[in-house]
Queue: 2 jobs
Job 1
Amino acid sequence: MAAALSATAVPSLEKVDFLKLQNGSDIRGVAVDGVAGEPLNLTERVTQAIAAAFAAWLLDKKKADSSKRLKISIGHDSRISAQKLQDAASRGIASVGFDVVQYGLASTPAMFNSTLTKNEDFLCPVDGAIMITASHLPYNRNGFKFFTNEGGLGKPDIKDILERAANIYNGFTPESLEEAERKVSSSITKVDYMAIYASNLVTAVRKASGNIEKPLEGFHIVVDAGNGAGGFFAGNVLEPLGAITTGSQFLEPDGLFPNHIPNPEDKAAMKAITQAVLDNKADLGIIFDTDVDRSAAVDSTGREFNRNRLIALMSAIVLEEHPGTTIVTDSVTSDGLTIFIEKKLGGKHHRFKRGYKNVIDEGIRLNSVGEESHLAIETSGHGALKENHWLDDGAYLMVKLLNKLASARASGQTGGSKVLTDLVEELQEPGVAVELRLKIDQNHADLKGGSFQDYGNAVLKHLTNKIESDPKLEKAPVNHEGVRVSGYGGWFLLRLSLHDPVLPLNIEAPSNEDAIKLGLAVVGAVNEFSALDISALTKFVQK
């Protein structure tokens, strides 16, 4: 995949292994130099090649009439490398003969929506969309997500695009790069698409309230955008609906993320939005990740709605609208959540694999085989609804909460966010919940030259055999990922990471003593695997 030098090739191009940039259904790399041990691999030239490859892939997929110029929209989050990568991607798209529609600062869900919106004033719908983001990763990283009107691209598509990109990169010449520079100036149009996206969210809340102009009038709602792309939600969504947003924080885009990691799973981030709610005596707090495809909330008492609690809340709302429907989640959700969905709400809990794309694709698959599912949601905060084209949209999830507040107000209920809190009051929550990461040393002799995947699977197989001989433990009868086991009033799940040489271990139990018993059961099964670092687990069980 290296750039081969020839008389006409560009001599300054670095060698690049494009396939190493793949991260599941995304592309991720280092876009800013200066961090020790993290060499630059997502350069402007690499970006130009990837964008050109996406355009070529799209051309093949659309099999378009050659008389019609196709359009690709580009948006980005607040990262400091965003502008240079947007410019490079624009050159790549223009070099294939496409028009480029630049949105500037945008959210990931908005980029998908731009392939669906029918509005010629905003040059919509576009034929494809690129979001430049690396979610909650550090400031020096960046990456790409790609969309058509069928949704986000999957792993095979990303591999195809990166293979095409390697060939394009290796074929760059001074002449071809110059030609791309020449073409791009006449191919770009800048559009404020976020205005139409925010307007659609406002319309959705008004509609849910019975077309009241300001259904959130009097509600005090604070937003924490973590200096990512979500700052629009306060001024362009909440305020037009009548909400008071004073006390909202970190709305200004800043790609160095000086206040906290924009991540609803991060404890410091959740502490920041909780404190803002309490300090401002707000009814509700809303927090987004960098590119707004994930979110979480906090009620007026400081109680967090994230992870299992957010899933429970969304399940309660969706099952009111679609009684009996199946809720798809990732593999690390709690037993208490299953009881809540199935016994309290009358739905069906379908626990699947980690990875938001896996969860969403499983929701789509269930519908295709006749099992109705309206919500697919991961503990990370990625949640997608059938009514919203199966798009994981953090802003739309929060709109569903706002709809509940607005409709409760319209029907005469008072009490602010208590209407949300009451929906999940019967959710059973564990006394102890931990995640430990057991790393596989890929250079250890015990691997015998095999892959970490093979070694990890051998660990899981051995654990399964051990569990079957322990009468106090019971393996989950239906399980799609790793080994999930119940016992001592709780459960554990040991699984192999999707991308890394790591076996994450989740343990939930009523007490620390019960959690340690579950941990000891794992130790007893895996301690003979010498390439597996179980120091974190050993430390936990010795508490």
Job 2
Amino acid sequence: MGFDLRRTGFLIQRSIHLAIARPSTEDLRWEISRSRTLFFAQSTDQTGTVDKPEPPPEDPSSGSTTTTGGSCGSVKRSLTTQFEGFDLNQQSSQSSSRRDSNGEPTPAEMAAKTCRDNLRLEFEGFSTKLRGRNGLNGFRPRPPPEPVNHEGDGVGPGGCEDRPIDPDDVRRLMGAVSFGYGVFQLSISLLPPSLLKLISFLGFEGDRAMGVACLMHSRISSDMRAPLSTLGLLWYYTIVTPFFALDGSNLHHEICSAQELIDESNDQFAKSSLFLFFRGRVERLKSNIKEAIQAYEVAYRSSAQREIKLLCLHEIGWCRLIQLDYGKAMKNFKELRRCSLFSKSFYAYLTVICQGAHGYFDELVRWRTEITELLSRSTQKESQIEKYIARRCSKIPRAETEQEKFDPLYWRLLVYEMLFMWNALNSCHEATLQAIVQDCGKPPEELNEPSIGLGRLILGAALVCLKRYEEAIRAFRDCIEARTDEGVELQQDVHISAFAHYELAMLLLRKEDDDEDEGEAREEAKRLLVYAQLNYKSFDFDNRINVRIHSVLRKLN
């Protein structure tokens, strides 16, 4: 009787709700009005009837009514709040009499005061939250950082112990950063010139020497990426550089660097299938084809991963093709066509040219139909290999009546073209190169060429490998002349003209005559490179030749 616990509980529940949820303006107005009224006790008579409060005298100078009495002083009644069930005069007099008699406030007054204090604290906390939410960009402003005391007892901010950084951690971190930066630099440097312009516009520039230096630093660090750095360097020296011919046909530095890396890792990774694979690549670049096949076979048997087995089988097939062993190469490529998920049309084409060069013509027409179906079902029609096979598919006989395509020399020229396009002529033995020169050096009327000028292009490349440079220059000039019909250059098989211009330019730059002739050769080589870069587009492996031309012109400039 004197204190309504139900209303007090309702007020506490309402204030908790305001502390959690974002209040509206009506909610705040309601709470303020309630905070002035609901903490007064409700008095009833002994019969349970509520005393009706008498209207207090109005103050003409204000817009509200006042009630005075006891120790409460004056209380202004809100015009928006109805004080139903409260006798303020009686309550104030009772409170005065009790406080006068006992000298202490009643429990109801203490509870009301506590509720008012709690509500005030809730409002202050909520206003602080609102100020934090309404800060800059809707984020709470961060407190100022604590000052760092470096001369204390070794305890940093937040109670954490301030200890020096271990130098081994720094070295390990630098090894990891060098690995990522080195791979990034090498990858950027291998992009075609059209993309290099965009990359340089964004602020990146591929530095091949910096990439190799970073990987060299990472491989000698204690970071877990050190073996990956070694594999990355082996990949660059044995696959990327020969494939793109970044340094021409001179791969002595790459071969020595790769061999040194393998020798240093021999104790730790002697039985690793990946390192055995790269050992085979080094032996192949040295023209030690038998040793390369042995390394690939050991890696094939020791590996438990299907992908590495197929990779080794791919290299074994190419080694057989470099040896011009068409029968064994045909079996390997046929197995790859059946098992591999990568470009089945590519392995089908390798199989058919090996069959034709081997003198086995029974299934040539069937192979053309199968390659056409594989190309139509392929999901990589825009890749360079798929485009290359699609253009070569027209070289395969459509019917048995095309007698000119049933000549072993016709198919051997296609095999030589594959060796040239994949930069595998450098790995051939001298006897193999002599056989290629003998086939391609025949008179044009006796040479059954799949494409005009192909024989002279292969002849020049083989003579370069035999270091017969003057004869190679004449062969490339004959190729460019054969590709021109009455002053108009042929538009079919444009890759032959592009590669002939590039190879001739590289030979002219290699000449070591007197200064005047050397200057003339340099200008002619630069003119050939610029002509090939500007006039030949959308041919077989155009990105590869463009990367080479861009690299050479960058050195010349």
